[in-house]
Amino acid sequence: MIIISSRKDFDDPDNLSRDGHRIKEIDLANDTVVRELTMESLVAELQGRTVLVLVHGYNNEQFEVYDAYKVIEDKVNALTPGVYDAVIGYSWPGGDRGIEWWQGKSRANAVARMFRSLIEEMSNSVNAVDLMSHSLGARVSLKALKESQVQTVVRNYFCTAPAVDNECLEPREEFFESLPSCGRLFVFHSARDGVLRISYEAAEWDRALGLYGPEDKDYISRRARTIYVANCKKIVSKHGGYKRANGVYKYISAYHTTNPAKFKTL
């Protein structure tokens, strides 16, 4: 898998690169480097292709990112046949300890500008960019979309276990302005997510979007034209369970071009 990293020295979990992105193809079976690429060579390689970009969450060493991305890539290839020509992983300094929430959140905000530039550049040459984030990766992704001036820079955004406020997509809230840069946004949530129910609420004194979905269900149903909500409580029993849940990928495969119901239980 091609990995694009904004981490210092490619794999530092706590520090942001000051030299821009580094890009490597990694053999995820043994975490070895196959080759290193420039942004120009990557863009040329992806010309006309449909790409899924993965954005991990908080508290991940680089090897843990690789392990998760290997699972997701295998599931995408098996359960969404013909949908994507390439799956690309994004690595950002989300920390490697559970007690670093505020530092991780700050770096998520800081890396968003770099990530925005990346997806904008990719969108100029590929057929389409889809995005899948997990947990605090939602902040990286939503802030990048909010700052983008490109209409529909991302075609579909699959937002799993989002560790952001459950009101953030509503008018006048933090990420409402992210929506024009995204063709469709799919929120995947589970009430059985203990990390969001306990740790997120303890840190933020608020409820996460990834626990019960958006707070204002009527707004989603009547006014949020591009937002869809998938309740995963039957198939996801823990915070990191989305990557192994076959129902998530079958949902993506079924609805990557057609619209599902506004609310659907998987």
Question: What do these coordinates show?
Answer:
The protein has 266 residues and is an alpha/beta fold. It has one domain (2-265): 3-Layer(aba) Sandwich (Rossmann fold), CATH 3.40.50. The chain is built from 8 helices and 10 strands. It has helices at residues 39-45, 62-79, 101-123, 137-147, 194-204, 209-212, 217-222, 246-255, and strands at 2-5, 22-27, 32-37, 50-55, 86-91, 128-134, 154-160, 182-189, 227-231, 263-265. Strands 3-2-1-5-4-6-7-8-9-10 form a 10-stranded mixed β-sheet, sandwiched between helices. Helix 3 packs across helix 4 (137-147). The longest helix is centred in the middle third of the chain and has 23 residues, at 101-123. The radius of gyration is 17 Å and the shape is globular. The relative contact order is 0.13.
Summarize this structure as a short list of keywords or feature phrases.
single chain; 266 residues; alpha/beta; Rossmann fold; 10-stranded mixed β-sheet; 8 helices; 34% helix; globular
